[in-house]
Specification:
Layout lengths: L1 E5 L4 E5 L41 E2 L39 H11 L1 E8 L5 E14 L4 E8 H6 L10 E5 L3 E10 L5 E2 L2 H25 L1
Parallel strand pairs: 3-9
Antiparallel strand pairs: 1-2, 4-5, 4-8, 5-6, 6-7
């Protein structure tokens, strides 16, 4: 298999590296056909494959102070630890980063135990179900979006939305484990819908701005 690379001035044939991530889209589907012709535009921006169409879909816009676990500290939710659960013996792949482990945990529906330090320095342990992640443009932090089993077991509900959704800053996770248990997804998470809505807002703002400038003329 080869990949055809072309510009307006020339075209050339290049061998395909099977490990090249741009061979596949965010859902693991091939970007090129057997002849190396590009079938769809590759993108690595969103690795948040939906669990099921019947579930509600959250976007980064939905993750605010009600769901960021650091902001729950002032509401009496922290500190807390899982109650009485032991890690079951089970073989897992080795991961070089937490990010890889989190993505794998989501795809394989594996519960994780996170050891986390909040922005105020509080050490907490939470058992979570990985549901998605995104890059926060305002803080420039990678955010992990989860269903928090520890919060659910303690009955600590957020106000509004889906009660036990919790978000964690990736860089504040000190340690993680898989505990040998699987979960049923509670919601979908998508940055594709978020980016689409953001583009619509920008277009609307531009139209309004152009309309105001036209009225001033």
């Amino acid at each position: 298999m080869v990949r055809i690379i072309s510009t307006k001035k020339f075209a050339q044939v290049a061998p395909v590296d099977p490990n090249d991530p741009y061979l596949y889209d965010e859902f693991g589907q091939p970007v090129y056909d057997q002849l190396g012709i590009q079938m769809r535009r590759p993108t690595l921006k969103d690795g948040n494959r939906p669990f099921a169409d019947a579930l509600d879909t959250l976007t980064p816009d939905d993750i605010g102070s009600d769901f960021l676990v650091d902001d729950r500290e002032d509401k009496g939710e922290l500190p807390t630890e899982p109650e009485g659960k032991e890690i079951e013996e089970k073989e897992y792949p080795e991961f070089s980063t937490l990010f890889q482990a989190f993505r794998w945990g989501k795809e394989n529906r594996e519960v994780m135990r996170l050891h986390y330090i909040t922005v105020k320095g509080t050490y907490i342990i939470r058992e979570i179900e990985p549901h998605g992640d995104f890059w926060a443009r305002t803080t420039l932090k990678r955010i992990l979006v989860t269903w928090d089993e520890t919060a659910e077991a303690s009955g600590m509900a957020a106000q509004g939305g889906i009660s036990f959704v919790r978000a964690f800053r990736l860089e504040n996770v000190q340690k993680y484990d898989f505990i040998g248990q699987q979960f049923e997804p509670k919601f979908n998470f998508s940055t594709v819908q978020h980016n689409y809505k953001r583009r619509l807002r920008k277009r609307k703002q531009k139209r309004e701005h152009d309309r105001e400038n036209k009225n001033l003329m």
